[in-house]
Amino acid sequence: MPRPIRPRNVIRIGPVQVATYYDARGREKHTAACTAPRCGFSADYNSRPAAEIAATTHHCPIR
């Protein structure tokens, strides 16, 4: 059974949450995920600034 992801350093930029976590191999990863209903945007990045830029430039396709 894989270990659960434990996000830390979570911030919210508009409807998008940016968090840092460790993947299964122990590497630090950063994710950006939109919390708007029916949006479905989420992406993993190797650097925190990249995840924050993705969060600031994200526009939900569904209104």
Report on this model:
- It is a single chain.
- With 63 residues, this protein is of the alpha+beta class.
- It has one domain (8-57).
- The chain is built from one helix and four strands.
- It has a four-stranded antiparallel sheet, covered by helices on one side.
- β3 (28-34) and β4 form a beta hairpin.
- The termini are far apart.
- 14% of the residues are buried.
Summarize the biggest pleated sheet. Answer: 4 strands, antiparallel
Instruction: Give the H and E element order.
Output: EEEEH
* Main β-sheet, spatial strand arrangement: 1-2-3-4
Shape: globular
Number of domains: 1
Low-confidence stretches: none
Provide the helix percentage: 10-25%
N-to-C CA distance: 38 Å
Radius of gyration, whole Å: 12 Å
**Tally of helical segments:** 1
Mean pLDDT: 90
User: What would you call the structural class?
Assistant: alpha+beta
Protein name: Mobile element transfer protein
InterPro entries: SpdB
Pfam families: SpdB
